[in-house]
Amino acid sequence: MTTTKATPARFDHDDPDRPRGWNFDSLLVLITLLPLVFLFQGPIRRALSAPAMQNWMTVFVAVALQALPFLVLGVLLSATLAVFVPTRFFARALPRKPALAVPVAGMAGVVLPGCECASVPVAGALVRRGVTPAAALTFLLSAPAINPIVLTATAVAFPRNPEMVFARLGASLLVACAMGWLWQRLGRADWLRPPAHRSIDGLSKGEAFWGSVRHDFVHAGGFLVLGAMAAATLKAIVPASWLHTAAANPVVSVLVLAIVAVLLSICSEADAFVAAALTQFSLTARLAFLVVGPMIDLKLFGMQAATFGRGFALRFAPCTFVLAVLFSALTGAVLL
What we know:
Layout: H1 26-39, H2 41-48, H3 51-84, H4 88-93, H5 98-111, H6 116-128, H7 133-146, H8 148-157, H9 163-186, H10 205-236, H11 240-248, H12 250-264, H13 271-277, H14 283-292, H15 298-308, H16 310-335
Family: Belongs to the UPF0718 family.
InterPro entries: DUF318, UPF0718
Transmembrane segments: 21-40, 60-87, 99-122, 134-158, 165-183, 217-234, 246-266, 272-292, 312-335
């Protein structure tokens, strides 16, 4: 009788049998860009010395460096939560009644750090383990918006406006609970596709942890760079008259920054520093940016559709956006 040794699980990019073609990874991009930079160093040097470009680089570097420590800490804690905390812990901690489980799941986001990239798979795991969908979806929205890393980053980004921390906490928690109760009241079972189980058999805890850290840091770090670039562009290149025109109207300014949050898809550990750089806009408009972004953006829509089904995402995302804008405006009017 012969026995076969189990083959350890592999990530897709480690599969030796996978056909290999052109892979435009970071090393290939670097090798391609270095000769071009050398050939055109004169024009590049003149462009970088322009006052507008100097302002752009100053804002970009400031936003990126301020946000980076919080991004690293958030990624490490998110990986710890995903790998070392068993999913059954959440199922046992939540009340059995859905109406009570919703606010408890919402408050769990205050003590359980994790970015929005981690909240979607965690919510999927909760649904698989029998947690009521209303509570799982509440946690999905609240965890990346009101966890201690995000709130600390908001306090650092807005040192002269400590009320922004309480406004973000209150508005985000209200939206998360409202969406949970709304799903409990109106949601249908056939709208929510049961999430598939992704096995990590063959991987040790350490391998799974560092794999999660690498994935989340590269993914979230890329969006941080894009967000810092966008903030710097708005600050240094876009005509100030355009920004002041949009910022002058309270309704338009809130809608503009809410849409910008959806398009930029910045990680919640870093978005406060981008919002702080948008000084042309009111605190209420920037609050909308901070509330909408961690709950619904382009990357989150794709992740929600992949985890729970496209039909779910097409219903859940627009409703979340509307409630986030509404509660942001109301909270800003009261606290800011």
